[in-house]
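Hi team, as promised in this morning's meeting, here are the two structures we talked about. I've kept the exact order from the run log so nobody has to guess. The first one is mostly here for context; it's the second one we should focus on when we meet again. Sequence first, then the predicted structure tokens.
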Amino acid sequence: MFRWLLVAGVGLAIGARPIRPVLVVHNYYYAKPTLADSVYLTRLEASAIRRRAGLVVGSVLRRTGGPDSLPDVIWEAEYPDSTARAKDVAALSGNHEFEAIQARMERLIRRFERSTWTTDR
């Protein structure tokens, strides 16, 4: 069992590696009626483009139940900090393949939201 020590706002497990904050981004996709499958597949294509570009791929989550007020698809990605996230976003600027996927996604969804979180890893 580890003993925990709080030093300058960063938790440390004695005898373990330091715990560092991580930036977590969630993109919420709300599909138009009957288009949830297309939204999911399009998000997977966007992740494949990110992989080919050497960027954070993230995880694509698909809703399997619950009320329709919840998003149909969530993309979740982790970054070491906001600077890394900004570089990631900038690297996609002008990527015609990714921009085409974004345009397709806009036709498939009724709403889009993004949230940013921090957690310790």
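And here is the second protein, the one for discussion:
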Amino acid sequence: MPHRPPPSLSRYLVEWYRPGLTDELLRETAHKIGCCAGELSAEGRTVDLLLTLFVPEDEVAFCLFAAGSPASVAQVCRQAEIPFHRIAEAIESAATGRCVENGDAMDPLDQPHLKGENHMKAVYKILAIVVAAQVVLQSMAMVYAVAGQGKWVLEGGVLDAAVIESRAFVFPEVLGYAVHGMVGTMIIPLTALILLISSFFTKVPGAVKWAALVLLLVAAQVTLGFLGHDIPALGALHGFNALLLFSAAIYAARLARNGVASQTADPDARLAPRT
């Protein structure tokens, strides 16, 4: 059980991303943090480690400190080699683990605003995965059509301007071209736009930035696709941009799963107050 430090000390919650953290490593890490906190306290800057938690599903660890300043907590984390994501001042309450609404006990996790945030986080993750899946579908459709076209030509078919302009289904695999165009010019842009809208409600750091990047790459993908008909070199960039789009969508989905953004490089930036 965590001990009670002097009430004059503020509480600070430290959050860091740590994939693959086991129970044994968590105990070792907590011991190391405690030793570093003890060393700093011996120098006159009191820092107490109150609690250490790890959420395996999100691969996120939390430490609750009692200290005189966030700078002291940051120094302990750096000495313990903890790559923390952020330090936030916390408020301690004597309230129990259940709340009462209209006279009935209610689990805190069942509170409407928390449920809403979790739902939007799930929506964001699903939409990001759908964008990545649609990019894969586009690639498959294009290769399917090109392979079918090559087979048709080898069997005696003649591909000329008249055939292209007729838009006739002269070989079955030409459907791949239609799927590629429809998904790329209509479905993916719409999905990416909805992803960006949902990002404002997820409460996940970095969600808006990555959703905006996905939408930007989609716009570039559509533009390169159209220009590639006149400038073949841009067709190569069209394929390369598809890889970037796929990667960005997958990262956005993983971001929603972890619920944390990439670590800030500047330690002082982590201590900056949020506005």
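Starting points for discussion:
The helical segments are 23-42, 70-79, 112-154, 161-166, 175-199, 207-227, 232-258, 267-270.
Confidence is low (pLDDT under 50) at residues 107-111, 260-275.
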